[in-house]
């Protein structure tokens, strides 16, 4: 994180305030939507300081006091969202209560899937991991309710179209009669479940055990831990914040 005693670039301030990624923040600045101490700023590279009043579309912004990067072991039955009209439990509610900054998930696991999910209040970090060009590998261990034919593995590896959407795994390995290990890069919405359903299979257990270099390991279900500096560095983020 930049030393705020020497000022912080405005686009970085916006990203850390959870407004957007740094790249999107630059466009917001160009559009004249940001003011500092009453002056509209449209040029890049402007510095802001803790005492400055920063407004976006006339609404005051607060820079994040502390940036958090957490790995959560999400149990089944929790939804990855900031709110749910149906009142289902939020994975967000499992994070430590002493974190006062607004946190949000980076990527998703569907309601009944479990395992590794990142949470942060750093918009730039979320945008980087979500960008298709830099998305890290995601590894899943899946157990089916019945035997998994070898053709399911082969279809994942070769690529398969289901309802007009192309799905393809980077790696797929049968680990038992009813279990398979799958590595995805893009990770389209409900990809594994949709391919399973195409072959009339049901995923009894779908657990994400790795995101890039970060392993779920023995983190207890329902608990979280901070990402280490080494993990952030291995995610190619250690030198960019």
Question: What's this, in brief?
Answer:
This protein is an alpha+beta fold and 241 residues long. It has helices at 10-16, 22-30, 123-130, 150-158, 191-198, 229-234, and strands at residues 8-9, 34-36, 39-40, 47-48, 54-56, 59-61, 69-74, 104-106, 114-120, 138-144, 160-162, 165-167, 171-176, 179-184, 203-211, 214-215, 224-226.
Descriptive notes:
With 241 residues, the chain is an alpha+beta fold. The chain has 3 domains: 4-61, Roll (Structural Genomics Hypothetical 15.5 Kd Protein In mrcA-pckA Intergenic Region, Chain A), CATH 3.10.290.10; 69-134 and 214-234, 2-Layer Sandwich (Alpha-Beta Plaits), CATH 3.30.70; 138-211, Alpha-L RNA-binding motif (Alpha-Beta Plaits, 2-Layer Sandwich). The protein is 20% helix and 29% strand. It is built from 6 helices and 17 strands. The protein has helices spanning 10-16, 22-30, 123-130, 150-158, 191-198, 229-234, and strands at residues 8-9, 34-36, 39-40, 47-48, 54-56, 59-61, 69-74, 104-106, 114-120, 138-144, 160-162, 165-167, 171-176, 179-184, 203-211, 214-215, 224-226. The strands form 4 sheets. Strands 7, 8, 9, 10, 13, 14, 15, 16 and 17 form a 9-stranded mixed β-sheet that branches. It has a 4-stranded antiparallel β-sheet with strand order 3-2-5-6, with no helix packed on it. Strand 5 and strand 6 form a beta hairpin. The model has no long low-confidence stretch (mean pLDDT 90).
Share of residues in strands: 25-35%
The CATH architecture of the largest domain comes to 2-Layer Sandwich
Structural class: alpha+beta
- How many β strands by DSSP? 17
Number of domains: 3
Low-confidence stretches: none
The level 1 CATH classification of the largest domain is Alpha Beta
User: Please, how many helices?
Assistant: 6
CATH superfamily of the largest domain: Pseudouridine synthase I, catalytic domain, N-terminal subdomain
CATH topology of the largest domain: Alpha-Beta Plaits
User: What's the alpha carbon Rg, rounded to whole Å?
Assistant: 21 Å
Largest sheet: 9 strands, mixed
Helix content: 10-25%
The rough form would be described as: elongated
Topology order in helix (H) and strand (E) letters: EHHEEEEEEEEHEHEEEEHEEEH
Distance between the termini: 4 Å
What is the averaged pLDDT score?
90
